Amino acid sequence: MANNTLSVTDNRTGKKYELPIEEGDVIRAADLRQIKVGKDDFGLMSYDPAFTNTASCRSRITFIDGDKGILRYRGYPIEELAEKSNYLEVAYLIVKGELPDREHYERWENNIKIHTMVHENIKKFMEGYRYDAHPMGMLLGTVGALSTFYPDANDIHDLESRRLQTRRLIGKMPTLAAFAYRHTKGLPYVYPDNDLSYTGNLLSMLFKMTELKYKPDPVLERALDVLFILHADHEQNCSANAMRAVGSSQPDPYACAAAAVAALYGPLHGGANEAAIRMLMEIGSVSNIPALLRKVKEGERRLMGFGHRVYKNYDPRAKILKEMAAQVFEVTGRNPLIDIAIELERIALQDEYFISHKLYPNVDFYSGIIYQAMGFPMTMFPVLFAIPRTSGWMAQWAEMVRDSEQKIARPRQIYVGEPIRHYSELASRPKPTQREDAVSEAI
Ligand code: ACO
């Protein structure tokens, strides 16, 4: 039988160590601490900026095989869920671990819908944002503000409280998102219509004008639902990690979710589809693609919507969206950027740089083109990502709260600053040297 240990020889001392290899082919970084040069030595640490090879948790929620391009929620392939399920059912699956039977599904749907309304003061709070505020910034601030409306939410070790906050936040996110959008347009906020589906109601709150009842286009309603399924979770991505890291100091989940929204705001995460659309618009025509690719290969810029920390193969979500785009265009008319995108993908996937770097389209490459065709402004793209990702964030947070191995997230550092020096009075300080000036330029 194989010996599940790692033998390490410290060549500085000649000492040998046996480190256990645990389930999942991991060693515990803390086991390195016994490797010391002397008695007072702190012990060996691993250095892993950006966690490129460090597991921060054990999780049962989402499985990704980046080399094979596989994504599964709770074991179910994303392709099957996108074809057969709907977002609310997938949210149940992600949060609770199993697909619901009919009775549980109906109760879940009802429980989410009864939380779609927000306190009137939330509406007033949002009215306070500047007329041109970015909707993602508004969402970020308002999700954080929910913390002040639900002080009971800090009872994070209570199962019923966690369940209630989860239903509340999944229920309210579309309302907050739609209010943010209406605010940027100077339009009156539209209250939820619980006769409609989750995505149908979102479309109503976004686009309803003077009609008494908004009727969502069934193709667009379903397309949005599929987009929401694809965005529901993605294991330890930047925003899930933010949710967990902030959650580890045990504030209420709204404070954690605000941090997750903030992480999602950035152009390397949820802002990438906006960046991808801007890039496609800048290319403008298929004939300009080679010039852009040259700049990318020379390291002058990145191909937005390409590449992924985990996928070193085609992102399975991008494949589903590429196919779905045609159905959406039948209703909305063709977004001409799709032709540039398809040609850009074709050329890039034959190019040695992209092949050797294993760079493939990610979900953001096609999602923006679909959102744009559906009439969403680019500033709404990350907001449309945050709504479905809420179920993933809440599941990741609840898993973290219940994990007895988790403690406050607190990485180590390697101190590379000055050794001890002593305070001198202002008047007697020498002029800064060139090096000190360079250091102060860092901020
Ligand atoms: N265009 C060109 N080159 C790229 C790209 C890209 N989009 N992405 C990675 N590379 C290259 C890097 O230059 C680097 O090359 P080198 O080794 O020759 O220096 C190599 O590939 C590895 O890149 P890293 O930045 O180390 O990869 P990392 O895993 O840290 O980054 C990321 C992943 C942030 C997604 C990156 O691929 C990127 O910036 N992509 C564009 C932004 C984007 O589409 N983000 C959406 C991610 S999916 C999501 O959040 C839903």
Task: Please provide a written account of the structure.
The chain is mainly alpha-helical. The chain folds into 2 domains: 5-47, no CATH class; 75-406, Orthogonal Bundle (Citrate Synthase, domain 1), CATH 1.10.580.10. 50% of the residues lie in helices and 5% in strands. It has 18 helices and 5 strands. The protein has helices spanning 78-84, 87-96, 102-113, 120-127, 135-149, 159-185, 198-207, 218-230, 238-247, 253-265, 272-283, 289-297, 316-332, 337-349, 352-356, 363-373, 381-402, 434-440, and strands at 5-10, 15-20, 62-65, 70-73, 76-77. The strands form 2 sheets. The protein has a 3-stranded antiparallel beta sheet with strand order 3-4-5. A hairpin with a 4-residue loop joins strand 1 and strand 2 (15-20). Helix 8 (218-230) packs antiparallel against helix 13 and helix 9 (238-247) runs antiparallel to helix 10 (253-265). It is globular, with a radius of gyration of 25 Å. The N and C termini lie far apart (56 Å). 38% of the residues are buried. The model has no long low-confidence stretch (mean pLDDT 95). The structure holds acetyl coenzyme *A. Residues 268-269, 272, 296, 302-309, 357, 359, 362-364 line the site of acetyl coenzyme *A (ACO).
